[in-house]
From TrEMBL:
Gene Ontology molecular function terms on file: DNA binding; transposase activity
InterPro entries: RNaseH-like_sf (IPR012337), TN5-like_N_sf (IPR038215), Tn5_transposase (IPR054836), Tn5p-like (IPR047768), Transposase_11 (IPR002559), Transposase_Tn5-like_C (IPR014737), Transposase_Tn5-like_N (IPR014735)
UniProt source species: Microvirga tunisiensis
Signal peptide region: none
Cross-referenced NCBIfam families: transpos_IS4_3
Transposase IS4-like domain sequence ranges: 313-387
Name of this chain's protein: IS4 family transposase
GO biological process: DNA transposition
Amino acid sequence: MTKAHLPAADPADATDAPSWVERELAGCRFRDRRLGQRLRKLLTHMARAIGGSLPLACQDWANTKAAYRFLSNPKVNEYAILQGHFQATRTRFAAVDGPILVIQDTTELSYERAQPRRIGSTCRVNSGRDKEGRYRMHTVCGLLMHSCLAVTAEGLPLGLSAIKFWTRAQFKGTKELKRKINPTRVPIDQKESIRWLECLRQSVALFGAPERCIHIGDRENDIYEFFCTAHALGTHFLVRTCVDRLAGDGQHTIADEMQEVKVKGRHQVEVRSPKGDASLAIVELRYRRIHVLPPIGKQKRYPALTLTIIHAQERHTPKDRARIDWKLITDLPVRSRADAIQMLDWYALRWKVELFHKILKSGCRAEETKLRTAERLVNLLSIYCILSWRIFWMTMLNRVIPHVPPQLALTGLEIDLLDELVRDQGPIVRGRKTLSDYLTKIARMGGYLARGHDPPPGNTVMWRGLSRLMDIELGARIGAQIYG
């Protein structure tokens, strides 16, 4: 980042600085003030027991019962819980310069319940054959979550900008409709694909600077309505394309035009085989600005667009893995090999949202909760999203901007505790310690060895260390109240 000074506490007031929970939920507005207080308390409890159950986090029946009541309250929903986090994301967005990548993706959360109808379903899968050899179909109980994660060009996650939960029951009948008419003629608002457009609009409205945003999606996001919506909002997109659309005068396709494009450069990338073996691959780069037409069934409703197609492909197929073959579509101009490589690097950061979902499922163990209704689950998942982002953010701070002051992410009490709990490896003057020094200490509390050849700490040791630190911080505050 060209300007890495995200909002931080003043070092002079660091001891009395509000906790990260207070800062992250400052923008929450409940009609009943007690709901806001309960949310802060619940988030604090859950942060001290990341991956644990609600009873483990709350520690007693009174707090556990209050947590269940909060999650069941009809006045509580995902937007009310995440409203403060969205505003904090906007603050971090405004504090950095340069383009921001808004990465969208969908994940499924599966559950086993005695009454699955109270939650909903995600899909039907083949459960094998019965005794008579017939295939059995099994309905998977669960929710789908579509999230937008704002990330800097260097890979630092600033937070969520939009989120949407749903079950497949809400779109019952869409498949039957597609059997009767051409799928391209089905209105977008009758498809699950509408989530891409809704989250795009919500993100643009939140940030208020559409020209700085590049909305990134995988092949599922190759939707012409999405391109038109981004164009109308004045924002940008970069999507991996899988549809060979009509181009030019409508007598040929994008693939026909790209076959005429000569190789305009080569780029070396590091890849891994299915066994995890690293190797270097050389991809050939082709790119061209193309006049793209809407699908035939939608040409009266949507305009043609002039877009850039980027094709990165290996010349030969390797023996131990699939050949790299990326086709990207964007409204941004690509005038040189460097521009094309930048687009590839930006799209490669799409994996950050996958890591966010991994933390949500593996770290917070979002699929192990025993709540029985979709409404309660959605509210709990919203809290898990804040925790997952926090873990991811702390992990990536250590890699992207390690040399900033520790007050960027830690309070004065947390800094003092870390200095007492984890001794420095070598002589370091306290005033010269960076955020990286203290984040490494947190990771060491979570099992990170911090040897000279070790890579930077990952998400697992960070969430373990953060949980321990919050418990110790609570003990320090209680001790100060008792003994002064």
